[in-house]
Amino acid sequence: MTEAMQTLATLITSRRTVRQTENTPIPLETIYKILEQAAYAPFHSEVEPWAVKIASTEQEKKFFFQCVFNSYERIGIFESHTDEKKEKVRESYREYFEGTPISMLIATDVFDHEKKDFEAVGATCAFIQNIQLLCWEQNIGAVWRTNPYIFDAEFTKEIGFRSNQKIVGSLHLGYPQQVPKAKERRALDQWVSSIQVGAK
User: What is the CATH number of domain 8-190?
Assistant: First the structure.
């Protein structure tokens, strides 16, 4: 148990957000195995609240990109852009989506109940972190994004989720081109304190 705990601690503290990846393909079998293991995240409901959509083929990546761009058109992201700037952004996004080996969207169930919705989002975030750690264990980098399109109900529908599901984020996976340096963390005494008995 001690050795396993040490390995887990190293995995957690060594993990980095990776934005620049190789375009080397990642076997889908590897991703499915990671998802199976990540599903052991804790959850409060009777059934795991998360759902995942994967884009791995050229056709799927192009569709994902087009849905994103449709969303940005719809919600006004490009209102202040010139045609030239808009085309540059479009090309940059297209290259990113098509050059990333695996992209996935993760959604959570919505119950229209404050406690249940809070629990579902918390569980799905734990699931996402499990994915990132399991990827890191296999030298697969990940970046967890919460871009504006995930808040667009039309995008959620167009990409294939149900109306009672809410997207929590997108994950983009690939073998790292470079591993970023660790960001310095705050000292423990800046954010940990004892409960003050009788405090008001």
Answer: 3.40.109.10
